[in-house]
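A quick aside before the break. I want you to see a complete sequence-to-structure record at least once, exactly as it would be stored in a machine-readable document. Don't worry about memorizing anything.
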Amino acid sequence: MSSSIVSIATLGAPRIGPRRELKAALESFWAGKIDEAALREAAAGLRAANWARQKGLGITEIPSNDFSLYDHVLDTSAMLGAVPSAYDWSGGPVPLATYFAMARGSQGHTHHDGCTHAHAGSGQGVPALEMTKWFDTNYHYMVPEFRRGQDFTNASTKAVDELREAAALGYATRPVLLGPVSFLRLGKAKNDDFDPLSLLPGLLPVYTDVLRRLAASGARWVQMDEPCLSLDLPDAALQALRDAYGMFARVVPQLNVMLTSYFGGLGDNAATALSLPVAGLHLDLVRAPDQLEPILSRAPRGLVLSLGVIDGRNVWRSDLPAILDRIEPVLSKRGTDHVQVAASCSLLHVPSDVELETGLDPDLKSWLAFAAQKMDELTILGRALGEGRDAVRDELAAAAGVIAARRASPKVNDAAVQRRADAVTGDMARRRSAFVQRRDLQREHFGLPAFPTTTIGSFPQTAEVRKARSAHGKGQMSDAEYDGFLREATAQTVRWQEEIGLDVLVHGEFERNDMVQYFGEQLAGFAFTKAGWVQSYGSRCVRPPIIFGDVSRPAPMTVEWWRYAQSHTERPMKGMLTGPVTILNWSFVRDDLPRAAVCRQIALAVRDEVADLEVAGARMIQIDEAALREGLPLRRSDWQHYLDWAVECFRLTASGVADATQIHTHMCYSEFNDIIAAIGAMDADVISIETSRSKMELLDAFTSYRYPNEIGPGVYDIHSPRIPDVAEMTDLLQRARAKLGDDQIWVNPDCGLKTRGWAEVRPALVNMVEAARQTRAALSA
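That is the input. The structure line, written in tokens, reads:
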């Protein structure tokens, strides 16, 4: 392959390995099956493979320090010594035990006195840091915690170590750091009311020390990610950017900074970004293509522009000739030394390699580009710019042919679906009566106690469950045998829920591989991969569905499993569905229709399922919208349009039922304050939310808004292996009672229990039921 004279950058590569090797290593380490040295060896192997692949595909700006054992924001907290006091860290390099305690929490050691104690220096016996979504993606990061007057110190050499590690293998890399302003804005001031940006003066010396060490170790460029540049920024943040990058230019002038923003345009932050003393500026031209011309007209002559033209967040092949038409004029104006071709953002958000997919429809497979293919697309663009289009004539013709074939394919277009979506009316998205009237009918029908207990839906997907699913998929277990296994697991779970005293039951979802995939596999217009894994957080990986065509529901999806589970109990059994906005936001979505139009198609399909559940006898139906907020545009000016169609789509699924049928929904980690009016407009009878890590702080939005409907604030953090005791859950319920009316509160875990083990779930739910009983007793005393 001829080398291009135009630089080509990926910004970051998938971390988990083509076959989830990182997941296997992490979970073996946490289970005590391998030691720290073996874990670090596995991680080094993944890094080396990433560097080799990028070098082999022609990438010239290869990143280092983009790898993480859990989360790059947590890595930054460790690098800066931003370790909360609860983790009992006394300085020096942050130990791996402390790092994972911050990520996952720790149950602690039980001593002879029966009490649980923290182990000095390891952070055991404490909850994990709060976790939330990384901007508007489905990746989660660990939220940094700050205290007033906090000191920072260089507590990790990871960035320098990985630069040297790559160099020893023969790879010259560009280290990646999360920038100081974005880091502070992504964090949270705990137990105090102050602006984290006030900590910048104490933070910058640590950053400059890291930059000096990188320069001394051979780095010529460093990629400084400041994704906050895609947000609405106050003047204080803009000044913080000027202060930070002014200091870096003065103290480490020999190191070139590529200032990187992504997930949106610079907008009114462009003037500040262009004024900073940096050597390069990256632009996301997939999410914000219109920013190119204004930036180009104002960029200083010596500034290197990194053009993010290959979509780092979706899986479709790119229209390479059209991209070249847009960026060739940039090259002619600025020259090859001042232009880089890049992915729009890190390739962390897409699977590794489409060539691992051997079972996909050939047409669909030809339309797809995963990380490896995107790197190849970047190289083709780089060669076309550096050597001329004739050098890659065949590749460009192939790319154009794929785009044309996909656009014309009958596999994509269904006229009946399009006609139905066009016929939707406003009345279809409104319940028949107001909540107050519905609530009285529902309370009379169900007769539940105060503080009713339930769970969010799924129960542990144990090794036995996964083994059975795998055996069935390989043909080693017959349909009848697999069905019998699932029925027995469901029946046992229903009986156990009755035994411990839960008021509203679920069937456990043992037949479901994933809350989105399960539905997508039964909907027209969806496709699924075998190896298309992306990281959600830590070792948690997901295979997002691919929405390639018009969506419809050929047949009922959940009715028979609900009917079977309800036959085993007299207690209410919730029907469990995933909402249209979450299905959309957790999928790779076709890019030839507006997202709102795709979501409406999904909503009509889910509406059909809700109607069939009600006909079958279901009077509680949960339609999870765990990802509603993560689809929120980064700029506030764009919010209302999104919220209008997202709320309409949810209501379209839920509004065809009778008043006595209770609609539940669930939302994952979110800051609700800014969208509380939209949550109210969803008009769900009961919403359950994740609040335990924030100690019920997330309820403040519902309190100030005077949210009228019922709420299940999570009292059990299922993302941690800790087993909270009765007192801890009772305390959380008391905090909830201080913010909500007693008649509003349901008692439930933060989220589904799929990823936990029964050894954790059983005692935790027993404690949760007891906490509800004690709270009821206090109410009647």
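Two observations worth writing down. The longest strand covers residues 304-310. The chain is about 40% helix and 10% strand. We'll return to this after the break.
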